[in-house]
Amino acid sequence: MKRLVVLGGGESGVGTAILAQKQGYDVFVSDYGKITDRYKEVLNSYAISWEDEQHTEALILNADVVMKSPGIPDKAPIVKKLLEKEVQVISEIEFAYPFTNATTIGITGSNGKTTTTLLTYHLLKQAGLNVGLAGNIGKSFAWQVAEENFDYYVLELSSFQLDGIVNYKPHIAVLTNISPDHLDRYNYNYDNYIDSKFRITMNQTEEDYFIFDADDQASQNWFSKNKIKANQLSFSITKTIKNGAFLNNNTMEFKINNEEFVLDAAEIALEGKHNYKNAMAAVSVADLLKVRKQTIRESMSNFQGAEHRLEKVLKIQGVQYINDSKATNVNAAFFALDSMTTPTIWIVGGVDKGNDYTELMELVHEKVKAIICLGIDNKKIIDTFGNVVDIMVEVDNMKDAVHTAKHLAEKGDTVLLAPACASFDLFQNYEDRGTQFKQAVKNL
């Protein structure tokens, strides 16, 4: 009997444990933090042994294979010991993949991947396909493989999940874009992070498809040095594309497998140029899977965007409050600021991942009237923008941030939460940060 040890007792860990047990593995779950009561109950109901607030080496180092949750870095002491012993350490996606015959669509990228994933899932579901949603969002992929019987899965994949794949291969892979993010996990080496993203296509063959942003510089650089086997489709909002999708004035034109198809950009439920790209990527997937054009048109106009992603919360006394808590890096904050059309009070800050804020300089100069720093260490933000805006305030909780913003805002202004940073200094995660923002706005 093969022994699987699962590191991390969250959604992906518990899902993997359930699937492994069903497949006849001897399973043990170990979490260095606390496992929530809900997950403890699930593990107990399946009679899966677990521990939390510790890693007992005698129960871990004897594993045949280890599934590591994406939040645990390779430099964690227990992971180092496993690698020294040459125990295979993989991700949930890699573990679950051999146990399903479903076709998978894998979507990665520094920004836009959640919106693109939700949009692709929406398009396929509306078309009547038997499709599951998993990866970084929704219920764990492994858990669904254990209990559901989908023909297709749309998977949102982080670079951490891709680091742990060996044989996993999506039939259709989408890389939305690449910008510096999580560099703390890649020895502050941008090339390592880029290579990590491209792992999504490493096992693809000539029968598979790879969809990418033709405007993205990092992708272009990678392609100048590397070759892939999959059929390439790209999308662009600046140039004409022979095979893929592009923007022609306000029309999206698709040329895929010698078929042409147009979509009026005004018919799309999402605002902002970057969302045109997300839409092009999702529609390209639907088109490859032979979804009817009429269904695509209808689905694009009735799509509800992702929560915490340029989400309009409320308009109070002529001031619009927008929650973009999911803007956890500079590039995402760039998109958010770029889509502002009124004077903006910008709430920014959190755990810096090696950010370079200078690329936001022009936008801040043009659009931002005041900055509210919401983080434990705001030195870098203050140093960068101190001379650019007239008003800069430091706060250490969401309630104060929102009250300060209300005090500074005038009719016609926008208050934007787009932190450009991770949330772990003051919040559990970006969802918690966004939810607290929305609650504070509703309490004004």
UniProtKB/TrEMBL annotation:
Catalyzed chemical reaction(s): UDP-N-acetyl-alpha-D-muramoyl-L-alanine + D-glutamate + ATP = UDP-N-acetyl-alpha-D-muramoyl-L-alanyl-D-glutamate + ADP + phosphate + H(+)
From the Swiss-Prot or TrEMBL record, state where the protein is found. Cytoplasm
| Family matches, as Pfam families | Mur_ligase_C, Mur_ligase_M, MurD_N
* Keyword entries, A-Z: ATP-binding, Cell cycle, Cell division, Cell shape, Cell wall biogenesis/degradation, Cytoplasm, Ligase, Nucleotide-binding, Peptidoglycan synthesis
In terms of domain of life, where is this protein from?
Answer: Bacteria
InterPro entries xref list:
Mur-like_cat_sf, Mur_ligase_C, Mur_ligase_C_dom_sf, Mur_ligase_cen, MurD
Mur ligase central domain residues: 107-286
Cite the NCBIfam families for this sequence.
murD
Please give the name of this protein: UDP-N-acetylmuramoylalanine--D-glutamate ligase
Organism of this sequence? Flavobacterium croceum DSM 17960
Q: What is the lineage of its organism?
A: Bacteria, Pseudomonadati, Bacteroidota, Flavobacteriia, Flavobacteriales
